[in-house]
């Protein structure tokens, strides 16, 4: 029994030494990052009446993240912003899922026709998991609905 105990103790010391050595050598200059690549995106613009160029306040601007096949991701990745008195809107997000977006402009008062466009964000200036940032301007000139 004593022989077995000495052998187990020696084996434990040997394994502990190997594991400690492996752990020490893995702490070199290379670092491991955990997480997901992400970028900061900003989509802004103005919504105006096409006929008289007046600002459209309270317009709903829906930003939908699209996958690589340009199909919408789940509704979880859809955000809505509204225009202010001057017709301006701004959408900002840190996203890890998509670089393609569909921007839809709707008028809750039902005076103007809906309009939409697709954009591709191309972030620059990042390092590591942070891929950088990009800002796009998407203006809408809305046509009034015909009676």
Automatic annotation (TrEMBL):
<feature type="compositionally biased region" description="Basic and acidic residues">
    <location>
        <begin position="136"/>
        <end position="147"/>
    </location>
</feature>
<dbReference type="InterPro" id="IPR008969">
    <property type="entry name" value="CarboxyPept-like_regulatory"/>
</dbReference>
<keyword id="KW-0732">Signal</keyword>
<dbReference type="InterPro" id="IPR026403">
    <property type="entry name" value="Lipo_with_rSAM"/>
</dbReference>
<feature type="region of interest" description="Disordered">
    <location>
        <begin position="108"/>
        <end position="147"/>
    </location>
</feature>
<feature type="signal peptide">
    <location>
        <begin position="1"/>
        <end position="22"/>
    </location>
</feature>
<protein>
    <recommendedName>
        <fullName>Lipoprotein, rSAM/lipoprotein system</fullName>
    </recommendedName>
</protein>
């Amino acid at each position: 029994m004593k022989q077995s105990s000495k052998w187990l103790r020696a084996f434990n010391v040997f394994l502990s030494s190997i594991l400690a050595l492996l752990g020490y050598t893995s702490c070199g200059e290379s670092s491991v990052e955990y997480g997901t690549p992400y970028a900061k995106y900003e989509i802004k613009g103005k919504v105006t009446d096409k006929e008289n160029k007046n600002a459209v306040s309270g317009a709903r601007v829906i930003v939908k993240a699209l996958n690589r096949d340009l199909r919408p991701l789940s509704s979880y990745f859809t955000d809505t912003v509204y225009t202010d008195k001057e017709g301006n809107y701004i959408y900002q997000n840190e996203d890890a899922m998509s670089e393609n977006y569909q921007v839809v402009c709707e008028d809750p008062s039902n005076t103007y026709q809906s309009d939409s466009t697709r954009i591709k964000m191309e972030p620059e200036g990042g390092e590591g998991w942070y891929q950088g940032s990009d800002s796009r301007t998407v203006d809408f000139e809305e046509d009034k609905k015909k009676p």
